[in-house]
Design a protein that fits this description.
- Chain A: It comes from Marinobacter halodurans.
- The complex is a heterodimer of chains A (361) and B (259).
- With 361 residues, chain A is mainly alpha-helical.
- Helix content of chain A is 74%, strand content 2%.
- Chain A is built from 16 helices and two strands.
- In chain A, strands 1-2 form a two-stranded antiparallel ribbon.
- The longest helix of chain A has 27 residues, at 252-278.
- Chain A is globular, with a radius of gyration of 25 Å.
- Chain B folds into two domains: 9-91 and 156-258, P-loop containing nucleotide triphosphate hydrolases (Rossmann fold, 3-Layer(aba) Sandwich); 98-149, no CATH class.
- Chain B has a six-stranded mixed beta sheet, sandwiched between helices. A four-stranded antiparallel beta sheet of chain B has the order 2-1-4-5, covered by helices on one side.
- Helix content of chain B is 34%, strand content 24%.
- In chain B, helix 6 packs parallel to helix 7.
- Chain B has helices at 47-54, 77-82, 100-104, 115-118, 125-138, 156-170, 186-201, 213-219, 242-250, 255-258, and strands spanning 9-18, 21-31, 36-41, 62-67, 70-72, 85-88, 174-178, 206-209, 222-227, 230-235.
- The interface between A and B is large, with 41 and 53 residues.
């Protein structure tokens, strides 16, 4: 019949359209001339760590000019690294969760609870140090598993879940520790292993603690897992579009659960670094570091809307905060301006992220 | 494509009820090797229930599905996929921020051979990129230059192309496309229609669900008209017109008489 048969004119028209289509497709990717601004946008879009890396280098250059050699000395820079060790480590956990479009407000509380478990197991119950360490890490993983189950099984929003568990874990920590600090010398005699992360090696005047080296190792490990394993691809896909990931055959519930357990475990590791850094175990220190970890992630260019960002961005983000605090302190600026600057950085970082995310397809 | 050949995929007497609503009322279906079979029908005629039953997304209450003549049943989409039926959903099921190669292999990534793959679970990115490039060039989609380019930077038609390429790469028996041109402009639709023909020409039968009559009449070898939960007729574009199809779809003409 007539409807299915196109007239020669229409057929020719189709041919013409088909040709122009392949033409435009090719142009879009090759010969299209971009303005410098568009090129910049593409570059940042393809390299999410580029913007924070530029900020970090600029900050280092600026403080070198303002403060001088005191700032750029290996010793001072390694000090910054020590100062960001805990936030950086918690930032790894936070990055994993934010990549899946979640947020974890409980990381600080989990870490403190884990320090108390490690300290009490070793000092009060006389467990071998290694056993105390494992129990502390296990406690972290368990806390993460609770968060994960509430998110994946009960299907509550991560913000609410972790706001709740932040309070719960912190209360448990106060109860279990009886709000008492475990003294540094008690830990030293019962379980020196717990303080090992605070020991340092000297490299050209830089004091590198084992804790900060562990943190760098953790970044490397998680980078590998995110970029070179199927699990990592699934984390990104789940954060990007959960329903689509499911249709593509990814078991998103499992991915999410594994993310929360791993984040809890990393908080346990942060607990070990924390004991090394301050020597003692205090139930009152560090439970607010959840916000600092989110700051590091956001400044590092990971999007709060999931599926976009990189783990090393978080390291850079933590370093930017550390550099600004250290540099401003050395320049003799009042502490309140450090906080002011960090606030500005957050807002600028998110504004840049919004701009980068706008894709002109 | 005569009726003596065994259908690649067929169904007899499929029934699916949701409460009092009968979505599939003893529906039949036949897909023959190397053809594009369009499935058309009014809204609520039960086409999507039929397709879901064939792709494992719903389990029919009664009826029989056969692949190459052998009875088969799917409890979930993964089982259908393992049997060689790949479905491209309307939502495409791609991860926008991941690259083209990553998306092509999403959910079935290749790992490196040896200890790197088995112990360290390391992905074989080079091999995945190579195969993805191969797949896209086979389908004439090589205008997509950079195989690591994020899918969100592609146009709607190119994204559809990636999703179709994925299904063609892994669908060993059947490719099901759900409204592939619904969200596309004229030029992009054309590109996708050509892609459908390419897939068929490579020997993979295609099931095309579409509302767009001109598109259906252009690429389909046969047209399955669905009405009131069952197959009303199977017509051919060269013997029937679009108005015939619409008449059967709406019940103005009795399907059996028209076919």
């Amino acid at each position: 019949m007539t409807a299915s048969k196109s007239t020669p004119a229409v057929a020719a028209d189709h041919e013409r359209i088909a040709e122009s289509v392949s033409g435009t497709l090719a142009e879009r990717n090759t010969v299209e001339s971009l303005s410098a601004w568009q090129r910049l946008h593409r570059f940042f879009h393809a390299n999410p760590t580029a913007a924070p890396a530029i900020v970090l280098l600029a900050a280092i250059a600026a403080f070198t000019l303002i403060v001088g050699d005191r700032f750029l000395s290996p010793f001072n820079l390694s000090l910054v690294l020590q100062q960001v060790t805990i936030i950086g480590t918690l930032g790894v956990a936070q990055t994993l969760i934010i990549l899946t479009m979640g947020i974890d407000l409980s990381v600080g509380a989990i870490m403190v609870l884990c320090t108390v478990v490690m300290g009490r197991m070793a000092v009060d119950f006389g467990l071998p140090p290694f056993g105390a360490l494992l129990l502390g890490l296990g406690a972290g993983a368990l806390c993460g598993a609770i968060n994960g189950s509430l998110v994946t099984r009960v299907k509550l929003p991560p913000f609410i879940v972790t706001l709740g568990t932040w309070n719960i874990f912190f209360a448990l920590n106060l109860w279990y520790s009886k709000s008492e600090t475990i003294r540094s010398q008690d830990i030293e005699s019962a379980a020196p292993l717990l303080q090992w992360t605070g020991h340092a090696i000297d490299v050209f005047g830089a004091r590198l603690t084992y804790g900060s080296l562990l943190m760098l190792g953790l970044f490397g490990l998680i980078w590998f897992a995110l970029n070179w394993t199927a699990w990592g691809r699934h984390v990104y896909a789940t954060g990007d579009d959960k329903d689509a990931a499911e249709l593509a055959g990814i078991r998103t519930r499992r991915v999410l659960q594994s993310i929360y357990v791993l984040a809890g475990l990393i908080c346990g590791l942060a607990a070990w670094l924390m004991i090394g850094r301050i020597g003692s175990v205090s139930p009152q220190v560090g439970f607010m570091s959840n916000l600092d970890s989110i700051t590091a992630v956001v400044i590092g260019g990971t999007s709060l809307f999931g599926g976009r960002g990189s783990i090393f961005g978080t390291l850079i983000g933590a370093l930017i905060v550390g550099i600004f605090r250290n540099g401003l302190a050395l320049a003799g600026v009042d502490v309140l301006w450090q906080q002011f600057t960090v606030g500005l950085l957050i807002i600028v970082a998110v504004a840049i992220d919004q701009w980068i995310r706008r894709v002109s397809a | 494509m005569t009726d003596e050949t065994t259908p690649v995929l067929s169904a007899r007497g499929l029934i699916k009820r949701y409460g009092r609503v009968t979505a599939l009322d003893s529906a039949d279906f036949d897909l023959y090797p190397g053809e594009v079979l369009a499935v058309i029908g009014d809204n609520g005629a039960g086409k999507s229930s039929l397709i879901k039953a064939l792709s494992g997304a719903v389990v029919p209450d009664a009826g029989e599905i056969r692949m190459n003549g052998r009875p088969i049943s799917f409890r979930n989409p993964m089982e259908a996929r393992e049997a060689g039926i790949e479905t491209v959903y309307q939502t495409l099921a791609v991860a926008p921020s991941l690259g083209i190669a990553d998306n092509l292999f999403l959910g079935r990534e290749l790992r490196k051979p040896g200890i790197l793959g088995s112990v360290f679970r390391m992905l074989d990115k080079a091999e995945m990129r190579r195969r993805a490039t191969q797949q896209l060039s086979d389908l004439g989609l090589l205008t997509i230059q950079n195989i690591t380019q994020a899918v969100e930077t592609l146009s709607g038609g190119q994204r559809q192309g990636v999703a179709v390429a994925r299904s063609a790469a892994f669908g060993s028996k059947v490719v099901v496309l759900d409204e592939p041109t619904a969200a596309l402009g004229v030029k992009e639709s054309r590109r996708v229609l050509n892609l459908i023909k390419d897939v068929r020409d490579r020997g993979l039968p295609v099931v095309l669900i579409s509302h767009n009559m001109p598109h259906v009449f252009e690429v389909a070898d046969r047209i399955h008209v669905h009405r009131l939960g069952r197959r009303a007729a199977v017509i051919r574009p060269d013997t029937h017109s679009m108005s015939d199809a619409v008449a059967i779809m709406t019940g103005a003409v009795d399907g059996d008489a028209a076919a």
